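fyi for ur records
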Amino acid sequence: MNKKFHGSELMKDILKLFVVVNLLHSCAKNEQSIFSKFKDDFYSAAKNTGAEKFEYQFDGLMPQTSFFVGCQLKFLSIKSHGELTSTESLIYFEDDSISEIIEHIEIFEGNDGGETAGRSGKLESDSVIINDFQSRTKKSFLNSKLVTSGKLKKKAFTEYIYTVKKCTEKQFKCVP
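which gave:
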């Protein structure tokens, strides 16, 4: 009977280990899942409004995907990759103003613990930041948990976005 009791305790320990491994595995994927939903919503909104995709690159180091409704840029995606970071920004425009920016920021560990150039491939930090310009609020998620929520402050990046918007619309050469 003692052996039977020991066997059931071992099964419980294995089951606990299995649950912990699955939880850790799902947590690692959560941020990508959160951003994937926002990304799917972004491209669905562009499609549902009948937006026209326009191939133009304002900056070759920051690839963009642009969608026009009529003569106005309504949806803009900008990607940026640094040595240890990757960022993707999904930008919505309402009239001529930014209405929302959803950013996905990944920070990677450097090779040899940062001693040599390049990424080790190990993700150190994974964030999603939602900047809602209509309600003037900002929410930041780190590893799938809301870490900050509050008032939105003007960011320098918005000036760059407006420059990209202006140049992209000029290249679109819309004829109403």
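Residues 1-5, 16-30 have pLDDT under 50 and may be disordered. thats all i got for now
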